[in-house]
Design a protein that fits this description.
The chain is mostly helical. Helix content is 47%, strand content 9%. It contains 11 helices and 9 strands. Helix 2 crosses helix 4 and helix 6 packs across helix 10. The longest helix has 27 residues. It is globular and about 65 Å long. It starts with 6 loop residues before the first helix and ends in an 18-residue tail after the last strand.
C-alpha cells in the first residue's frame, strides 16, 4: 500500500519487487527520483535504467505508449530539490496532549461530554496534520513553514473526518467546527479555509515547556490514517485495542478480536496456507506459527506501546458510545 509520507521505502520496494499497482505515473516518478538520489544515476544513465526497468518489469510494455509517462517522470526527477519523503512515524509529546486536554472550550452545560471529546479529537487530528506538513517542509527544503491553516474542499474535509475517526452521524461544520470557532480554537475563512488559532497557542506553549519533563514523546503515530484511534486508545475508550500484527489501534468488534480488519484477512490467508501445508504432509517452518494466546493482555507490538490514561471527562465511562 502506498504510504504518501514514506516515499523512500515505497520507491525501494518498487525497485526491488517491481511495480505495486496499475497506476504508473506516481510509481515512475518515485522510482526515477530514487534512482537519481539513492543510486546516483546521471541523467543519461537514469533514462536508460528506467527504460530498461519498464521493459523488464512492466507487463505489456510498449515504447510508443509508455514513453510519455517515462519522460514525465524523468523531468520531475530532474527538478531542483527533488527528493523522497521518509516519515515512518510522528512522535506525539505529552505536553501536546496536556495542552489539548486543558484547552478551554464551551461551558459544559452547552455541550455534552461526547461532543466535547470529539472536538478535542478533531483538534488532535489537525495537530497531527500540521506536524506532518512541517516535517514535509523540512525534508523538501521549503524552509520554515508554520502551517497555521487547513485548506480543504469537500474531499479534504471527508478525509479529515475519516482520519479523526469521528462518528458518521457527527456533523463536521455545523457541529464540531462551529463549537471550536466559538471557543476561539479555529477561525473559519473563505472557501473552506480554516485558521488554526490553537496551533499558534501551542507553538507559544512549546517554547515554555522545551526543557520540561512533559517534552518527552508519549507515543508515536505510524499509521497516519488512524490518528483519531490513537487518541481514543490513549484515553482508554471502550473496545480500543492494538493490532498484534501491525501495531495500529483499532476498534474491536469483540473481546477475542486480536487484529485490525486489514490484518485479519492477511492472517486468515496465512493460516490457510499453513493448514494446506499440513494437509499435504509438508513441514511447516517454525516462524510460521501465527497463533497468539487469547488471554494475552500486553499493550505492545514490535516495540510499539502507548501508555493509556484515565478518560478525559467523567462522562467518558465505559458505557459511552461514540460511533
Amino acid at each position: 500500500m502506498y504510504n504518501q509520507y514514506d516515499e523512500l521505502e515505497y520507491a525501494r520496494n518498487i525497485y526491488q519487487n517491481g511495480f505495486q499497482s496499475n497506476y504508473l505515473p506516481t510509481q515512475l516518478r518515485l522510482l526515477a527520483i530514487y534512482m537519481k538520489t539513492e543510486l546516483g544515476y546521471k541523467p543519461r544513465q537514469l533514462r536508460a535504467e528506467l527504460t530498461a526497468f519498464c521493459q523488464d518489469r512492466l507487463p505489456g510494455y510498449q515504447p510508443a505508449v509508455h514513453y510519455p509517462a517515462i519522460n514525465k517522470a524523468l523531468r520531475q526527477a530532474g527538478q531542483k530539490g527533488a527528493s523522497l519523503l521518509h516519515i515512518k512515524e510522528l512522535p506525539i509529546y505529552q505536553w501536546e496532549l496536556d495542552f489539548l486536554t486543558a484547552y478551554p472550550l464551551c461551558p459544559q452545560e452547552q455541550m455534552t461530554a461526547a461532543l466535547e471529546y470529539n472536538c478535542r479529537k478533531l483538534m488532535f487530528t489537525l495537530l497531527v496534520r500540521t506536524r506532518l506538513r512541517r516535517l514535509i517542509s523540512l525534508q523538501k527544503n521549503y524552509g520554515e513553514n508554520l502551517c497555521l491553516y487547513f485548506k480543504g474542499g469537500g474531499r479534504e474535509y471527508r478525509e479529515l473526518k475519516q482520519e479523526a475517526k469521528l462518528p458518521s452521524s457527527q456533523d463536521l461544520h455545523s457541529g464540531l467546527i462551529y463549537h471550536l470557532a466559538a471557543a476561539g480554537a479555529v477561525t473559519p475563512m473563505h472557501d473552506g479555509l480554516l485558521r488554526l488559532d490553537f496551533m499558534e497557542e501551542a507553538d507559544r506553549a512549546a517554547e515554555c515547556v522545551s526543557c520540561s519533563p512533559t517534552f518527552e514523546p508519549a507515543f508515536s503515530i505510524s499509521h497516519f490514517n488512524n490518528a483519531g484511534w490513537y487518541y481514543d486508545y490513549y484515553n482508554r475508550l471502550p473496545r480500543m485495542k492494538l493490532c498484534r500484527h501491525c501495531g495500529s489501534p483499532f476498534k474491536a468488534s469483540g473481546n477475542r478480536q486480536l487484529y485490525c480488519p486489514g490484518c485479519t484477512e492477511e492472517m486468515e490467508r496465512e493460516r490457510w496456507k499453513i493448514r494446506a501445508r499440513k494437509h499435504r504432509g509438508m513441514a511447516v517452518p517454525a516462524g510460521d506459527s501465527l497463533l497468539v494466546p487469547a488471554d494475552s493482555t500486553t499493550g505492545s507490538c514490535h516495540g510499539f506501546e502507548i501508555t493509556v490514561q484515565p478518560p478525559l471527562l467523567k462522562g467518558l465511562e465505559c458505557g459511552t458510545v461514540f460511533s
